[in-house]
Please model this.
Amino acid sequence: FAGNPDFLRIALARHFGAKLELFLCDSEQAYSLKHAYDQDSAEHARQGCLVNARSYLESLRGSVLAGDVPISVDVVCESPLYDSVAHKVLRSGADLVLKSVARAHTAGRRTLDSNEWELARACPVPIMLTRGRAWRAQPRFAAAVDMSEDEANGRARTIMRAAQFLARGCHATLDALYSEREAGDVVGRTSRAEALRKLGTEFGIATDEVHVLSGDPEIALSDFVAERHYDMLVVGALAHGRAPTRVVGTLTSKLVDVLDCDFLLVRSGSSLAPE
Model:
């Protein structure tokens, strides 16, 4: 798997026998034109924007050697970007969205901008956020789940199903991760660890590939994933709510912020794998 996000998209489509659609939304131009005084000129500019965008995607399609992968293109000039992508997913019936993270951090790591955070929260299907780092020839994936309360029977299973499906298609190894906060709750800890092992067995993960960590998940998971150098971490998607507090402070958002691996965000009830 090459580090270029475009080659990653081609490789994934080839592995799963999938169709690939390149989608470009010029949301900045759309925002500017929305406030233009002369609407006739604005419409002319919008049409020009679409022509240029389509020309770019057509040249991109022609630059990749993927005769075995059906590739189509679509362009829009709409704002905001995250709503446009979500609407596109619904129109096309897409199973997965791949989005390269564009903004470079001062330390050289790519971090999400506000539109990408909103997309991570609004996307109705699993979304893969890639930073362009090359994967190993045999990729290493991990699925981080929460075994507390009722998670083992719902969201955790959805995450594991998507992770297993993607790992098998990519011929990747897959680990299951959970961090136990309650150090003093020996009975509960034992029960949750056993539940995770059973869940791992259900999805073909060996006992030695199931890791129950100790401590605050934000720290324990971050350290463990960084140490193991996973190519991708599969986690639960962000909440649908619009309030900023629904993003800031969530475990997923903090892991995305501190780790440089790729992420697959999976929402409850929306998995890549067939039931």
